[in-house]
Amino acid sequence: MSEIRKETLVIVGSGPAAWTAAIYAARADLEPLVYEGSFSRTMIPGGQLMFTTEIENYPGFPEGITGQKMMMDFKEQAERFGTRVITEDIVKVDFTERPFRMWSGAGEEVEASTVIIATGANARWIGLPNEERLAQSGGGVSACAVCDGALPHFRDKVIAVVGGGDSAMEDALYMTKFASEVVVIHRRDELRASRIMQQRAFDNDKIRIAWNTVVTDVLGDDEITALKLQDTVTGEERELDVGGLFVAIGHTPNTAFLSGQLELKDNGYVATPVSWRTVTSVPGVFAAGDVMDDYYRQAVSAAGTGCMAALEAERWLAHGEDGD
Ligand code: NAP
Q1: Ligand 1 neighbours (beta carbon < 6 A)
Q2: Which residue, 307, 309, 289, is CA-closest to 298?
Q3: Does 148 participate in catalysis according to the annotation?
Q4: What are phi and psi of 72, to 5 degrees?
Q5: Which domains does the chain have, with CATH numbers?
């Protein structure tokens, strides 16, 4: 049997929240251990920013910075102060008693005095069988335009993007670089995206919006050839020939591995019941970033809550539940 690791602070995740928590904790000599994820696409190292192009709204980068570069820099900064990193998921936890116990995907057991959960969220799918089949086989269906959109496969074709939020606008704008036309398919007659992103999409001649429309099937054997669409107002059905489909309809928080050990909100995000704090339902376990934030969901706000979680973990270790 492999030896059980004994740690002061374990951080699960590797987005802006996790690395910021690690930077603060490492500088406070807590010697944090980060489980950064295993490339399984559940908790991919670097998190969602690995799938973003240019980040233009993170203060301190007047020219913008790519998500990948930002995450590599965050990690390097955390390691510079002694953060240790394991490229594995945490797949199971036992928070019923202290020290808290966790198990990695490789079967390793780790005990920790305190834990920060910063596992972020993952892209959602429409839920159609052919969508799943063609996404898994690389047949032109993806939830990540930035990862897959530049493939030769998608060049000079009509590409569909499903969703009406900022992600859909970002994906649509990105795909105009390669596609002959981008059709945004949105289930309502009004976008959810921010004004600036809406305007950019409206101003782009290559983007057309199919309002009040849902995808009811994805057609194609080895590769996508068309979508079956339905008008949500009239019920009318039609087909749209496409060479690619990008699904951008939001995210699901990565909380399955917690299997009920932390209280969750109705929408599945980790509950942090005290306003402006990162404490969870279990004293000594803190949550930061998109796994607990269903409202702002920004890199900079995730980093902010990562800082808060590390400071709270430090105080909790020093003073226990009276640490307030
Ligand atoms: P979102 O804001 O939750 O938008 C999801 C969109 O998908 C909504 O328009 C929703 O329609 C639609 N949708 C949801 N489920 C659907 C389904 N089953 N079938 C069809 N359509 C469905 O998600 P997001 O766009 O990923 O953005 C998440 C957060 O990240 C936001 O706070 C956003 O501002 C931020 N973000 C920012 C940037 C940026 O600033 N550059 C880029 C990306 C994301 P309804 O509108 O009808 O609900």
Answers
A1: 57, 126, 162-168, 170, 187-188, 192, 194, 214, 248-251, 297
A2: 289
A3: yes
A4: -65, -40
A5: 5-122+251-323 (3.50.50.60), 125-247 (3.50.50.60)
| Cα(95)–Cα(116) distance, integer angstroms | 12
Residue numbers in the chain where pLDDT is lower than 70: 1, 40-42, 51-53, 147, 321-324
Characterize 21-45 residue by residue with b for buried, 16 or more Cβ atoms within 10 angstroms of its Cβ, and e for exposed: bbbbbbbbebebbbbbbbeeebbbb
307 is catalytic: no
| pLDDT tens digits, 263-303 | 999 989 999 999 999 999 999 999 999 999 988 888 999 99
What CA–CA distances, in Å, run from 155 to 149, 174, 220, 241, 264? Answer: 9, 12, 18, 14, 42
Whether the Cβ atoms of residue 216 and residue 229 lie closer than 8 Å to each other: yes
